[in-house]
Amino acid sequence: MITCTNCNLKLNSTGDDVKTDQRRLKYLGYYTGKIDGDYGPYTVKATEAYQKAVGLVVDGWTGPKTCNSLLLPYICPSNNCQSDNTAIIAKAAALGNNATNIFNWVRDAKNYVFYNNTRLGALKMLTAAGGNCTDLSHLLVALLRAAGIPARYVHGLVNFKVDGQLGHTWVQACLNGGWVNMDASNNNDQIGTIAGTVVKTYGTYRELPY
Fold this sequence. Notes:
By secondary structure, the chain is α+β, with helices and mostly antiparallel strands. It has helices spanning about 15-25, 40-55, 65-70, 85-95, 100-110, 120-125, 135-145; strands at about 110, 130, 150-160, 165-175, 180, 195-205. It folds into two domains: about 15-70, PGBD-like superfamily/PGBD (Muramoyl-pentapeptide Carboxypeptidase, domain 1), CATH 1.10.101.10; about 85-205, Roll (C8orf32 fold). Strands 5-4-3-6 form a four-stranded antiparallel β-sheet, with helices on one face. A two-stranded parallel ribbon has the order 1-2. Strand 3 and strand 4 form a beta hairpin. Helix 4 packs across helix 7. The longest helix has 14 residues, at about 40-55. The protein is elongated.
C-alpha cells in the first residue's frame, strides 16, 4: 500500500502500489486501462495528463509532489482509521476492493447504536456488532482507504424525521472524480444519500477531531 513517504513510481514499476496509483487516477478520470499493477505507457500518459491539469511538472512519474496531490491524505491511515492494518486490508480485499460492496457490507452487517463521539475506531468496529455514526464512519473510511479509494469524513447538522436535528457524521468517497456521500448508519441508505436532511455542514476532514 502506498504510504505518505514511499511515493516513487515510474515507467516499469510494478506491484500493489502501482495498482493503488492506477485506482486513484481512474477515480479522477485520467486512467481508463486495467488495474494491473504495471506502470506502463498508459499509466505514464494518465499521470502526465493529470500533472498538466493541476500545474505540476509533466514527467509521467508519480513522485512525492504528484503522489501527495493525488488525494494522498485521504488514502493514508489516520487516528481511529487503521487502513494499514492487515485485518482491515484483508476485509477490503474480500469485498473486492469495491466501493459499493464495502458500503453495503458496513451498512448491512453493523447495527447503529446511539452514543457520542468515538468509542471503538475502525479496527474494533470490524468485529463489533454495531456502533454510532462516528464509529461506523471510521470503519467505512478505513476499508475504502485500504482499497485505494480516497475517503473523508463529513460532520454536519442533520434533520431526522424521528429524532429532529442532531449532529451527524458520514463519509464521502472520491468516485469518478467527485465526492459521493456514504452513510452507513441507516439500512435504507444508498450510495449518494444520507439518513436525513442536511441543515448545515460543519466541515470535511481527513481525520476526525472527536
